[in-house]
């Protein structure tokens, strides 16, 4: 039944878009990076079509952007398309991941405005703020007036839900060119990083971004292959309860994929979910009491804090052996965590940290980047 | 004579606050630029957009929302014959929230997307409000005591919030986050297109409310009295519910819940004009509601450095002391009921 509803909705959307879509989709997809789920870049004769599919969980539709060379005339396609003359000169960023992407291709200079400046970890970014070349456009919520006043060429943003998307629409009504970067929808670490290509194209660094991704894929895959040769096997669980509820990442999530690629045996790997699963604390204790490793303890930063918050947790085997790790090695004083920032373009670094955690002998000489052991 | 002077002051305060609200915002725009902008002289694209596409619709939204909430609150107070009734207190805003929560999260769960529909969200919100108000009204037919009814109203509102909590618990944290953002309330997200829809709903509801003046006045004097005047009570009450629920739901849909305007404005008007006659109360509440929300928005954007305080916090800070004052100053409340 559900399948038919899906089919019906898809057909409806298919009928709404104009016939040109069929033509566009038949064109060859460029790029050497592996298949991705939520975007594709299509090369036409004089311009690029960037398609964002299902930009957020309920957003079962496609956003289409036409990126055309600045010096040429604007192509005339269907009315729902957003036109962006490229390369652009200035950007507003609204997520720390955008900073991560831009830093990977030396593109921080393009940032002219950002909200939540304190949450950014990158020191080069903060130098640019000090020099005055990046201005603040709001803390927590983005300030609409400041955004308009910043007069940037393109706003990199994201929508996590319908009401968020309404806000994006409002910015567009106010004349802003907003490009949705939905890397958070990707559960494969390499697909997440692949969004670099969209940003690279916009700032005229498409070649750099493709080179970077090719290198990244190679590094990630060889690390993954290496981990397969390890004879050690660690079972693991993750997270820390909040108000009695333990949010465990689903077996199809970004985290679970990394655990698997690092050859760790995640106890909830079989769950078919992508999002976090709310679990009862008792359920977790029962299942994970003998797990070797405990990861990602949220705001908890020491074994003592674990003991203080709940005495029961000292019974975990991982607690007793001290194999508890959190990705809080690179955190600035406002709580900005580089794991979420540069981690988006460095799944290889995250993977290497995890390999070291799961196979201690195997990666002995390697220094952690994002993770550290709780003391 | 006194009425007309007071009315004049009220009517004059509106454009003054409107202009102040447009002049004030996160981005500092010199007064001379405003003068140029309105004379059609070029002032730079960004400032032009901020003035004409952002600040003016925002101020107009404040007027429409303030007037809508005030009518909604006034009608609820009369319907329940209860001085403390209002969209926020009776849980009608929570009902709107429940409607939206069910629509946003439920539609996603069965594989239907309501994102590209500009009608679905406001409609769900209005239906949610109407639903709660209707349940409350049905209860009020059984329970006559106004205090009991108020407590029941608060409880029904709490049930709505509890259901929202359950829905949130079973949806992903990403969706949860966005729903929480929605519940903060904002006047800035409303475009001219949405504004025209809101304005039309307000216009229709206001006309209907004016047509009900005789019934509203009669209901205040008691059921028996109203019947003896030949008022079709059931029809009038249903119309009152429809107006009050639609207006509260509409405001909540476009701007999130905005508290306490609905409850305090009718009281302020009763105190100012020393009357319970809806012929005076409806228009004066509309104007005062609009002015107070403009004033709240002015304060919300007052801090410098790009910070703006959520509008709901401001209306609560202004509203709650007034309610407490009303409760302590009981004489004036009971005299109007």
Briefly characterize the structure:
Chain A is 37% helix and 18% strand. With 375 residues, chain A is an alpha/beta fold. Chain A has two domains: 19-216, Nitrogenase molybdenum iron protein domain (Rossmann fold); 232-373, Rossmann fold (3-Layer(aba) Sandwich).
Radius of gyration over C-alpha positions of chain A, nearest whole angstrom: 22 Å
CATH superfamily of chain B: ABC transporter involved in vitamin B12 uptake, BtuC
Characterize the biggest β-sheet of chain A: 5 strands, parallel
Quaternary structure of the protein: heterodimer
The count of DSSP E runs of length 2 or more, i.e. the number of strands of chain A, is 16
Can you tell me the CATH architecture of chain B?
Orthogonal Bundle
Number of helices of chain B: 15
Number of strands of chain B: 0
- Average pLDDT figure of chain B: 83
| Secondary-structure element series of chain B | HHHHHHHHHHHHHHH
Report on the structure:
The complex is a heterodimer of chains A (375) and B (337). With 375 residues, chain A is of the alpha/beta class. Chain A folds into two domains: 19-216, 3-Layer(aba) Sandwich (Rossmann fold), CATH 3.40.50; 232-373, Rossmann fold (3-Layer(aba) Sandwich). Chain A has 15 helices and 16 strands. In chain A, the strands form four sheets. Chain A has a five-stranded parallel β-sheet with strand order 7-6-5-8-9, sandwiched between helices. Mean pLDDT of chain A is 87; it is low at 1-35. Chain B has a single domain, classed as ABC transporter involved in vitamin B12 uptake, BtuC. Helices cover 76% and strands 0% of the residues of chain B. Chain B contains 15 helices and no strands. Chain B has helices at 2-23, 31-38, 45-79, 92-109, 120-142, 146-169, 173-182, 192-211, 213-220, 223-228, 233-255, 261-273, 278-300, 311-328, 330-335. In chain B, helix 3 packs parallel to helix 8 (192-211), helix 5 (120-142) runs antiparallel to helix 11 and helix 12 crosses helix 14. Chain B is globular, with a radius of gyration of 20 Å. The A-B interface holds A 2, 5-6, 9, 56-61, 136-139, 141, 143-146, 148-151, 160-167, 170, 173-175, 184, 247, 275-276, 278 and B 25-27, 45-47, 49-50, 53-55, 104, 107-108, 110-116, 121, 169-170, 172-175, 177-179, 181-182, 188-191, 306-308.
